[in-house]
Amino acid sequence: MGFWKRVSFFLSLLLLFVAALTVVRFIFYFKYIALFSNVSFWQISIAMLGGLRFDFSTAATLLSPFTLLIFFPGVPNRMRLVKPLLYLMLFWELLLIIWNVADVAYFSFVQRHMTFEIVNVAGDIDVMLMLAVKSYLPWILIGGLGLAVYAWFFLGVVSFFLRKKKRALMLDHQKDVVSGPIALAVILLLSVVFIRGGLQMKPLGVKNAFQDENVELGILSLNGLYTTFSTVYRSYKGEGGFAYLDSLPVLPENREQFFKSLVDGERETVDDSYPLARSFDYFPEEARRYNVVIFVMESWSAKFSKKLGGQYSALPNFDALSAKGFLATNALANAQRSIEGLAAIMGSLPVWKGMVLGQGGLLYQTRFLPIGSLFLKRGYDTFFIHGARPGSMGFDGLAKRLGFLNHISRDDFELTKENNDPVWGIYDEFIFGRADEEFKKSKKPFAAVVFSLTSHSPYSFPDKGAFKKFDDSVAFAPFLNSLKYSDWALARFFKKAEESDYFRNTIFVIVGDHAEGESTSGSLYESYSVPMLFYAPDIVKAGRFSGVATQLDIFPTIMDIMQSSSPFTSWGKSLFSVGKRKAVLPRGDLFVYQEDDYMLLSDLEKSLALYNISKDKTKNIAGESKAKSAKLIKSLQEYVKFSSDLIRDNRVIPPE
User: Fold this and answer.
1) Euclidean distance between CA atoms 145 and 152, whole angstroms
2) Most confident among 83-92, 264-273, 465-474 (mean pLDDT)
3) Domain carrying residue 158
4) pLDDT at residue 349 tops 80
């Protein structure tokens, strides 16, 4: 095989894979076409062309090992060497295409491409497969046909370039001494150019996709393979974790004002060396020994509660409880996935790029005092109750790390057709019923987290006829019907609990783990807006809180209600505290920052989007509010730098 044929063969294989990635981009565009309703055809075309840079970079990077082996001098002329390599290359490409298509489906849940998720799916691969088969079987069959077509084209290209007569092969052996090394050098040079995304000074990066305030166009340019493997590569180079924060500014000169946004300086005592080791200034005799139960509701979105401004309610029982409770009307989830939401709620820990407790690593080794551990020290029973398998998403390790020693899961039930969803686990009514039984049996005060799962795709629940209140004419009807079921199951729990001895002495919290992604219609605010209710009619006065609130605020609010002077750690702030409030939320490798009425999307360097949520939650004003964006980016940098330095230096709480 001569020089030009080698280079042509390389380019043909590369272009074929790029074509597959581009097809997936068009699938992404048509699936989420509503996202692009406010941008012109010309802008979409430019984004598509920009996406080719990412596709070429992705293809050249992920195929580079095969490129080196297949085109190494001598190999192309030895069929017994090159054919197995090409078949292995085909298998690898098919796996990558499957991952890229899965990213398209994943986007509907979290409104971003995949990043570090590749390290989290291994333990639940069987659940993911069952979910895919149950929810997307027709699309899986179509996808299988698409993969077969791709394999046919691939083998056709291979057959075209490797078809040789014996005499031609003998001549190629003689030419290989000269043409082979030159061809390999050219192929490697082209690969480097493709990988870097061109001949510019700095290599291509995720941030290059975002060229203006239209975040959706940046998302269209990217692909899930590029975002996933760029994250893996940075971790391999040691640039994961917090290394990306080294260049950020130090804390502001006005440290006191900065700390007031995290703690209530008027009512809390703070250790200067450990700024989040804190306690309320109540007298010990003022402390109340209440039980605490936090219901973490799967995919509950605020937009489906009438009390929270929804057009119609899929949560009528929650709305009824809200009239008697303390409701946060502007509550945001610190998460886009359940494992992140649980870390924020149970540990009062922030969640963002490089800082996910469920992934282990540095954060697992950091000293902090979460809800479970604190109440264990105070002699409480602690429970983590859910319907999935104990190891699902790392729940078993997470519960222990956060001090919840009584872990009740799917394995603690006798499985029947009535109580068990074969994809995820036990239906909500049975989980909530089991929680009520455990609380009634407890001889000590208790702190518990009860995690629902029925309102997760594929939205299965018992007796579908009884809860099918929304027909197919209503958008997201399957999800809304599963919400109705979970809401009913919650009401059923409270009806039983109100007859118990523990009810009047218990603080109940109901909060969504994250918003349901597909129904957010691309709205940044809706992507995080969840219900949050503190319900204890004999303990907490009914009322409303309209300021910025996050899941991190649950722990300090509980400590405030209990009038406790016990030390604890939290990145949140009691809803009964005054002063400035802020929120930092994850979005893959990006950050969402809310302060006052403004919500910012940023990569820590520039503003990708800015919204004034009190005026218009969907209008991006980044282009016309550059001064405000710059100020918010500085505040975001300070917050993230402060938090990461505490964790990196293990200064969240002093050693005992």
Assistant:
1) 11
2) 83-92
3) 3-236
4) yes
Nearest to 371 by CA among 563, 654, 578, 566: 566
pLDDT reported for residue 360: 45
As a dihedral over the C-alpha atoms of residue 386, residue 387, residue 388, residue 390, rounded to 10 degrees, the angle is 50
Instruction: Quote the number of domains for the chain.
Output: 2
Mean pLDDT score across all residues of the chain: 86
Give yes or no: residues 217 and 363 share one domain: no
Q: Is pLDDT above 70 for 174?
A: no
Same domain, 453 and 520: yes
Q: How many CA within 13 A on the CB side of residue 295?
A: 31
pLDDT at 128: 59
pLDDT of residue 168: 43
Residue 189 lies in a domain: yes
Q: Within 13 A of 574's CA, how many CA atoms are on the CB side? A: 22
Q: Work out the pLDDT band at 369, boundaries 50, 70, 90.
A: confident
Confidence of residue 254 (pLDDT cuts 50, 70, 90): low
**Joined tokens for residue 627:** 């001064």
Predicted confidence (pLDDT) per residue in 377-411, tens digit: 999 999 999 999 888 877 887 888 888 999 999 99
Structure tokens given for 552: 């991190």
Contact 297, 516 (CB under 8 A): no
What are the residues whose beta carbons fall under 8 Å from the beta carbon of 447, sequence distance 6 or more?
A: 291, 292, 293, 371, 372, 375, 380, 381, 382, 383
Same domain, residue pair 232 and 294: no
Helices (H) and strands (E) in the chain, counts: 18, 19
**Alpha carbon of residue 296 to chain centroid:** 16
Contacts of 272 (CB under 8 A, 6+ apart): none
Query: Which is nearest to 197 in space by CA: 328, 101, 55?
Result: 55
What's the rounded Cα separation, in Å, for the pair 146 and 177? 40
Average pLDDT over residues 514-531: 87
Same domain assignment for residues 354 and 461: yes
Residues 356 and 433 occupy one common structural domain? yes
Q: Are 403 and 320 members of one domain?
A: yes
| 245 in any annotated domain | no
169 band by pLDDT with thresholds 50, 70 and 90: very low
Own/partner contacts of 37-46, CB < 8 Å, gap of 24 or more, are 39/214, 39/216, 39/217, 43/214, 43/217, 44/217, 44/220, 46/217
Residue 642 parent element (H or E): helix 626-648
* Residues composing the chain: 656
Q: What would the pLDDT profile of 231-252 be if each residue is shown by its tens digit?
A: 777 666 655 555 666 667 665 5
Which of the two residues, 573 and 37, has the higher pLDDT score?
A: 573
What per-residue confidence (pLDDT) applies to 423? 84
451 inside domain: yes
What tokens appear for 445 in the block?
Answer: 């005060």
- Could you tell me if 310 and 529 are in contact, meaning their C-beta atoms sit under 8 angstroms apart? no
Q: Please give the Cα distance from 572 to 345 (Å, whole number).
A: 10
Cβ distance 106 to 117 under 8 Å?
yes
- The DSSP output letter for 512 is E
Whether 613 maps to a domain, the answer reads no
Rounded Cα distance, 593 and 637, in Å: 10
Residue where a domain terminates, one of 578, 612, 628: 578
Integer Cα distance of 391 and 452 in angstroms? 16
